[in-house]
């Protein structure tokens, strides 16, 4: 997303929502402790 240009706030919101879901749910979480 470093170079992504959005044409509207709605487009940015959808793209960031997808990125957030992938970041939170799609990546393995490191074990603490």
TrEMBL record:
Output the PROSITE patterns linked to this UniProt entry. PROKAR_LIPOPROTEIN
What domain of life does the UniProt record list for this protein's source?
Answer: Bacteria
Question: Protein name, please?
Answer: Transposase
Organism, scientific name? Bradyrhizobium australiense
Its organism's taxonomic lineage begins at: Bacteria, Pseudomonadati, Pseudomonadota, Alphaproteobacteria, Hyphomicrobiales
